[in-house]
Design a protein that fits this description.
3-stranded mixed sheet, 22% strand, BirA Bifunctional Protein, domain 2, alpha/beta, single chain, 10 helices, 8-stranded mixed sheet
Length: 257
């Protein structure tokens, strides 16, 4: 039976910085707990302990990442369980959140419908900060100044995982040295265009990253209800097992060479 946001007792997880690979594992572990009914639906706000490139489940590692650039800039490369495109992450320049929810929340919806539905609250939050933001199918949040964020989603058992990475600020030169975005085809003008395509929240709001996150959390709480929570020891242990067996392995990262 389809449910609504307020039918659920939403929990907030916003803890200490984690390694990129552990974040991948936490998404899977927490979503599985929600699917099993052992955890209430959860909004998790990420804090990054290191810079990273996060590639989508089906992307080719060599097509997306320049290994020399990643090594030179000490960028960890990880693969997530959801599809979508590569994301360039720097701890102070990125806002990332996950929603782990019962599948009943998006029952009967197409992926396109569920993307718009799951991100409606954050569009409202951005508008209160003076950004006229909208959902750009299939999985982007955009504004007149350019793309703000990219989303990815996976339905797994009785749960749905929906996560979003937002550009608060960006080192565009470093990004272009680490990601292969058709670089061989980019003239100087096209490179500048690629850089402009992602427009950071810092330039649009003038606010500290923490203030943007606070407004997002406040908006979610006002619309859907939200209670502070902590990661349980068994959840962390499960995530650490997934880290060792899957997300930190070369086999998983190079799953699509």
């Amino acid at each position: 039976m389809k449910t609504q946001w307020r039918d659920h007792d939403w929990q907030l997880l916003h803890g200490a910085p984690c390694s990129p690979a552990l974040h991948m594992a936490l998404d899977e572990a927490i979503t599985d707990e929600v699917a099993a009914g052992r955890r209430a639906p959860t909004l998790r706000v990420w804090e990054w302990a290191a810079s990273a490139v996060v590639i989508g489940r089906f992307q080719s590692l060599r097509n997306e990442v320049d290994p020399d650039g990643a090594q030179r800039h000490a960028i960890e490369v990880v693969r997530r369980v959801t599809g979508g495109g590569a994301m360039f992450i720097e701890p102070g320049n990125t806002i990332t959140y996950s929603l782990s929810a019962p599948a009943s929340l998006v029952e009967g919806m197409s992926f396109e419908q569920s993307y718009a539905f799951m991100d409606a609250w954050v569009l409202d939050a951005l508008r209160t900060l003076g950004i006229e933001a909208w959902y750009q199918p299939l999985n982007d949040i955009a504004s007149r100044s350019g793309k703000i964020a990219g989303a990815a989603q996976m339905r797994r058992g009785k749960a749905v995982l929906h996560h979003v990475t937002m550009a608060y600020d960006i080192d565009a030169t470093k990004m272009l040295e680490v990601l292969r975005i058709g670089r061989e085809k980019l003239s100087d003008k096209a490179t500048q265009s690629a850089v402009k395509r992602v427009d950071p929240l810092r330039s649009q709001t003038g606010l500290p990253r923490e203030a943007v996150i606070a407004r997002m959390v406040e908006t979610f709480r006002a619309q859907h209800g939200l209670h502070e929570d902590q990661l349980r020891a068994d959840e962390l242990a499960r995530a650490q097992d997934l880290l060792q067996d899957k997300f930190a392995t070369r086999e998983w990262t190079a799953l699509v060479p």
